[in-house]
Input
Amino acid sequence: MADIETTIGQVDPETGLKPMVINLGPQHPATHGVLRVRVALDGEQIRACEPIIGYLHTGIEKNCEDLTFNQAITLTDRMDYLSPITNNFGYVLGVEKLLGVEVPKRCQYIRVMFAELSRIASHLVWLGTAAMDMGAMSPFFYTMQQREQILDLIEMSAGTRMNPSYFRVGGLLNDLPPGFEEKLRAFLDGFPHWLQEYYALLDRNPIWIERLKGTAPITAEKALDYGWTGPLLRACGIPRDLRKTNPYSSYEDFDFDVITETDGDVYARYHVRMREMKESLKIVRQAIDNLPEGEWHVPGWKIYPPNKQEIGRNMEALIYHFKLFTEGIRVPAGEVYSAVEGPKGEIGYFIVSDGSGKPYRVRVRGPSFYNIAALPTLVQDKMLADVVAAIGSIDIVLGEVDR
Amino acid sequence: MAGVEDRPVLFASMKKLAQWAQSGSLWPAQFGLACCAIEMMATAASRFDLSRFGAEVMRASPRQADVMIVAGRVSQKMAPIVRELYDQMPEPKWVIAMGACASVGGVFNNYAIVQGVDRVVPVDIYVPGCPPTPEGLLEAVMQLQKKIRMGGRPMAPAMPSPEEVAQA
Ligand code: SF4
Output
């Protein structure tokens, strides 16, 4: 990996020419948002490459300090907006760890279910857009159609399609609505067919294979050095999956495989994600089949607010409600790191509480931030067009990189 | 339009004709910033199908576009680029501010986010929501078409009379 500033100045002894500098983005159709990439080219070969980030810096971490613990959930939605629910997940688990509570089994199962659904939704958007980068337009229209079904399920239970803030500290926004199960089962039954359809569109397409096989490879050691996690690391052959290694929220109850591939190139990443969708489907099916009855939030009113009927009847409930919504949940002072396996890798939250109703500090480990750092290594001495394939395969979300 | 086929010549005001054509084939700049861009993608995709309104030709270059859909939050670092992209678009051009962030800064009232993209470029239509539903964006496109047919232009937004509103 060459440093771009020194590369730009180097004169080729044979031709007497300096490398050409090309700028991609921040407005570019293949950068998946507002990423900017500077590349120094020798002909079409990349001599050096530098991703420039920060065009979507939103100050989310700082803003969290200004909101109560429950309100800050809404901001976590807006980081990785392709799967907002997994963002909520890591955060609420962290706050619950600080509080020292565990949510009932039913809630844990529902959380798992939604986390896996949004993993599928995220991978679908990735598949559609990555295929579009490679010049295949039609997969996008197919994948978005299935994604809409997942969004409908989320809308049904959380009331909004994207950015649902469905998980709350100590529970959920509400229980599964009537009619949810049938709709979910219809989706589960229909989806394998569509998965086959995606394979049919891409998997035997010679252009797709030629373009992806051997493109932007990385070794497992390098990937670990860069702090890669998630499907990208698994595509290098390392079976690291927090759902298996550090099971949270009852993941130990579910039977699923950790998907790995060995090549570490774009094609391997594509296969990992495709097969992961199948595993997620398996988990969702198990969750809905074995969904326990009972409460879906922690008992008492100290953490999870009393319901509306209770407030009308009970003075004490009214007081708790008022306290929770003005001061927020009192979280004991301390600090915690909690991480979940998101669609892009390990989403970690380091939360510090000073004992008040607002977090003192929230630091986010966004997987995309670490993943994009490896871009220069991926494309070193490759063709310019491979940059697009590499960015597509990394599946970055700039909201999470810049926060 | 009954009986049109019998007439060899049609008379129309050039201005009206141009407005009709412009409103029927909007070319948005393919330019997503944040979460709202995903909903913009969903609007263009199969279920909501923006092409029903003739506005699906997303152009990657602003020089080929005439509508800028500002989909997402505009950071201080991004604001000059948004302006540059707007300046690169040929006239006549329109801007849709999609979502709470692009309209007023949304939930991010802080050091990083421009409190409304109308501080940088003139906005024709504001779409509420965080993110707006695809239906919301479709409604915005329809409103913009209405505005174009009434002769609305950026910089000098025409305030139509009630009669004109009824006509359009
Ligand atoms: S309005 Fe909401 S959905 Fe849209 S960019 Fe802002 S935070 Fe994201």
User: Anything to note?
Assistant: The first strand of chain A starts at residue 20 and ends at 24. The longest helix of chain A spans residues 105-133.
